[in-house]
Design goal:
- The protein has seven helices and seven strands; from the N terminus they run ααααβαββαββαββ.
- It is an alpha+beta fold.
- It folds into three domains: 94 residues, no CATH class; 57 residues, Signal transduction histidine kinase, dimerisation/phosphotransfer (DHp) domain (Helix Hairpins, Orthogonal Bundle); 154 residues, Histidine kinase-like ATPase, C-terminal domain (Heat Shock Protein 90).
- Helix 2 packs parallel to helix 3.
- The strands form two sheets. Strands 2-4-5-7-6 form a five-stranded mixed β-sheet, covered by helices on one side. It has a two-stranded antiparallel sheet with strand order 1-3.
Length: 353
C-alpha cells in the first residue's frame, strides 16, 4: 500500500502562500539547525553539511505533499488514455492545485459517463436494429422460398418493420443534431386543436390494429400557440406512439390542451400500466427505459421530446393520472414564443435545422 504524502499545507488557499510558507519554514529550520550545531560545538565542517541534508529532506517532505496531486493526475491521465475512466485523484488542498484536481475528477466522471453512454448506445441500437431486421429478413426469405405467399398481410408486416427501422434512424439523426447543436425554431402562430386532431387522425390510421379511441379536448376550442409546428408535431407524435405502445386493445387515449396563465398545457394520457414514480424522471434520459417500457420502444423518443420542449422554453413531466391505471405526459409551453417576449428563440437560431 503506497504511503500517503504528508500535506500540512492543504488548508492554505493559495499556491503562492504555500511557497512562501515553505521558504520561510525551510529558512527557519536551517537557522535552527545551524544554531543547534554551533551551540553544541559540532563545528562548521559537520554542522553545515548536516544542515543542508536535513533542510533538503524537510523541503522534500513538504513539497511532495504539495505536488502529489500533479503526479496522481499524470498517472491517472496515462491510465485514462488506455480506456480506464474510473481514475480519480485526491483533492484535499484548497489552492489552485486542489481546484485543478477537482476539475480533473469532474472531467474523469464526465468521460466515464460518456463512455458508458456510448456503450449503452451501441447495445441499445444493436438490439433495436436486430429485431426488425431479423423479422423483415425472415418474412422476405419465406416469400422468396415460397413458404408463404406475398399476400397483402405479409407485405403489410414487412412494411411495418421497415417503418420501425425508419423511425429508429430518424430518432438517431435527431439526436445527432442535438449533440451538434444544429437546432433552430421556425415559430408560427397556429390553433393547437388542429394540430392535435391531425396527429391523432394520422396515428389512428397507422395503428388501427388495437382499435384505440382518441379523444381530443381543447379549451377554448380556438386556443392559439406560438411554436415551431414541425417540432411540436414531432413531440405529439412521439408521445402518442408511446401511449399507443402501452395502451391495451380498445383503450382510450386523451389529448387535452388548456391555458394556464401565460402557458399552454398539453396532456397525453393513456390506459396503460402507468409509469412507476421512481422512473418518471429517467424516462426522458437518452437510451433510458422505465420498467413499463422494457417491452418495446427504443428509449430514444422521449429524449427527443424533452429536447424539443426545452428548445421552446417549456418543460415536460409525468403526472398522476386520475383513476387506477394509465400514464399522463404533461407538456407546458409558453403561449407566446420566447422571441416574442424579447428573448432569442434558440441559442442556435443561426444553425441549419
Amino acid at each position: 500500500m503506497p504511503i500517503r504524502p504528508i500535506r500540512p499545507l492543504d488548508p492554505l488557499r493559495s499556491l503562492k502562500m504555500k511557497l512562501g510558507v515553505l521558504v520561510a519554514a525551510t529558512v527557519t529550520f536551517t537557522a535552527a539547525m545551524t544554531w543547534f550545531g554551533l551551540r553544541f560545538h559540532l563545528g562548521p565542517t559537520r554542522t553545515f553539511p548536516l544542515v543542508i541534508v536535513l533542510s533538503l529532506v524537510f523541503t522534500q517532505v513538504l513539497a511532495r505533499g504539495m505536488t502529489s496531486p500533479l503526479r496522481e493526475m499524470t498517472a491517472a491521465a496515462e491510465a485514462m488514455a488506455s480506456g480506464h475512466y474510473d481514475q480519480r485523484v485526491t483533492a484535499t488542498s484548497r489552492d489552485e492545485v486542489g481546484a485543478l484536481a477537482a476539475a480533473f475528477n469532474q472531467m474523469a466522471s464526465d468521460l466515464e459517463l460518456s463512455d458508458r453512454t456510448r456503450r449503452d448506445l451501441i447495445a441499445n441500437v444493436s438490439h433495436e436494429l436486430r429485431t426488425p431486421v431479423a423479422a423483415l429478413q425472415a418474412q422476405l426469405e419465406n416469400m422468396v422460398d415460397k413458404v408463404i405467399e406475398p399476400t397483402p398481410a405479409a407485405l403489410e408486416g414487412a412494411l411495418a418493420q421497415t417503418e420501425r427501422l425508419t423511425r429508429l434512424v430518424t430518432y438517431l439523426l435527431d439526436l445527432s443534431r442535438v449533440e451538434a447543436g444544429a437546432a433552430a425554431l421556425n415559430v408560427t402562430r397556429f390553433p393547437i386543436g388542429d394540430l392535435l386532431e391531425e396527429c391523432a387522425d394520422a396515428l389512428s390510421m397507422v395503428e388501427a390494429g388495437k382499435d384505440l379511441h382518441y379523444v381530443v379536448d381543447v379549451t377554448p376550442a380556438d386556443l392559439l400557440l406560438e411554436a415551431d409546428v414541425e417540432r411540436l408535431r414531432q413531440v405529439i407524435v412521439n408521445l402518442l406512439q408511446n401511449a399507443i405502445r402501452h395502451s391495451p386493445p380498445g383503450g382510450e387515449i386523451r389529448l387535452d390542451a388548456y391555458p394556464v396563465g401565460d402557458d399552454v398545457v398539453i396532456e397525453v394520457a393513456d390506459d396503460g400500466p402507468g409509469i412507476a414514480p421512481e422512473d418518471r424522471e429517467r424516462v426522458f434520459e437518452r437510451f433510458a427505459r422505465g420498467r413499463v417500457t422494457a417491452s418495446g420502444g427504443t428509449g430514444i423518443g422521449l429524449a427527443i421530446v424533452r429536447w424539443a420542449v426545452d428548445l421552446h422554453g417549456g418543460h415536460i413531466s409525468v403526472v398522476d393520472t386520475p383513476g387506477v391505471t394509465g400514464a399522463t405526459m404533461r407538456l407546458v409551453l409558453p403561449a407566446r414564443a420566447l422571441a416574442a417576449r424579447g428573448a432569442p428563440a434558440s441559442g442556435n437560431a443561426d444553425a441549419d435545422a
